[in-house]
Specification:
The chain has 339 residues and is mostly beta strands. The chain has 2 helices and 30 strands. It has helices at residues 2-16, 163-168, and strands at 25-27, 36-41, 47-51, 54-58, 63-65, 75-83, 86-93, 96-101, 110-113, 125-131, 135-140, 143-148, 151-152, 154-155, 171-176, 182-187, 192-197, 202-209, 222-227, 233-237, 240-244, 253-256, 267-272, 278-282, 285-289, 294-297, 308-313, 319-323, 326-331, 334-338. The strands form 7 sheets. The protein has a 5-stranded mixed β-sheet, with no helix packed on it. Strands 14-18-17-16-15 form a 5-stranded mixed β-sheet, with no helix packed on it. The chain has a 4-stranded antiparallel β-sheet with strand order 2-3-4-5, with no helix packed on it. 40% of the residues are buried.
Length: 339
Amino acid sequence: MKNMDIIKRVLISFLLFGFTVSYVNANDTGIPAKKYYSATVDNNNNIWFLTELGIVSFNGQKWTLHDGNLQGKDLKDIAFDVSLEGTGFWIATGSGITSLKSPVDAGSASTSYTTDNATILSNSVYKIVVGKSNIKWVGTSKGIAAYSGTKWLDISYDDLYPSVIFEEYPITSMATNPAGDSLYVGTKGAGIARVFKNDVDGISGASVYAQWGPIILPSDNVFSVFVEKNGTKWFGTDMGVASHAGTNTLENWVVYTKEEGLVNDYVQAIAADQKGSLWFGTQGGISVFDGKTFTNYTTEKGLNSNNVLCIVTDSKGVVWIGTDNGVNSFFNGSFTSYK
C-alpha cells in the first residue's frame, strides 16, 4: 500500500505540473558501479561501458563486470573495432593502449601499445576512435597518433600542433569524418584541432577551429564532438553546441544554447538515433533535436541523473545513456533505468 501511495503522489505531481507521464522500468544490475562514462556497441549488439570499477557489459539480459588485467587501471575510453584481423576492443588507459580480442573472457588475447613499441607521443591516452578504412585514432596528453592496417603512421603535424599545445590544452573528445580518414579533436581551451591521413603513410594537420578563428564557436572548451553521416559536424562546449556544414571553414555555422531550447549549455556527449535526431547529453539533462525543435529530458522525466556522461545508439535503435548514477536506455518513448 505504501508503494501504491508513492506512485499515486508521483502521478498527481506530474499531472499538476503538466508533464507527460512515461513509465520507467527499474532494473538492478547487480554491479555497484555508479559512473558510466564511456560506451560502445559490439557486432552482436552488446553494450560495453567503462565505469569506476572497470569494464561492464550488457547482453540484453545480464550485466557483467569483466575481471582481467585491466581491472584497477586508469581506464579512459573504449571503442569497438571490426577489421580484417577480426573483432575486438581498443581501450585507452593512463598507461598506454590495450587491444583486446572479442569475445572477451578470462583468456582473451590482448596487445599493449606504449611509447616503447608504438608511434604514440605519451602513455597517458585520453581518447580512442575507430574510423573506417581500418584507421584507429589515438589522443594522448601530447598529441594524436594513428594506426592503419598493421602499422603506426608517421606524425607530421608538429609545426602546426606541437605537443606543448595538448599538454596545455588537453584532448577531451574526438570524432572522425564519414570516411574515417580525418579527425576532429576537441580540447579544453584551444577549440578543435584537425588532423588527416596523408598519402605517404602519415598524419598531417589542418587549421584549428577556434573562437579567434574567426569561427562561430560558443567556447574553446570543447567537451564532445560528433559527425553526422552527411558530414555535418557538432561540437559541444561549456557554453552551448555549434554545428558546421560543408567544407568552407568560415561559413555555415549555427550555435544553439538554452535560449534556443537546449536543456543546459554544458554539452558533454553527442549521438544520433536511427531517425537522425541528435541527442545532446549535458550537465542538466538531455536535449533531443529533430532539426527544428528540442525535446528535453531530466530526472523528472525518467533519467537516473541529469549529469549525462556518454550516449550511444545500438543496432536496434535503443539509445543508451551513461550517467554518474547508473544507465538509462530509451526506446519507443520510454526510459528504462539500470542501477
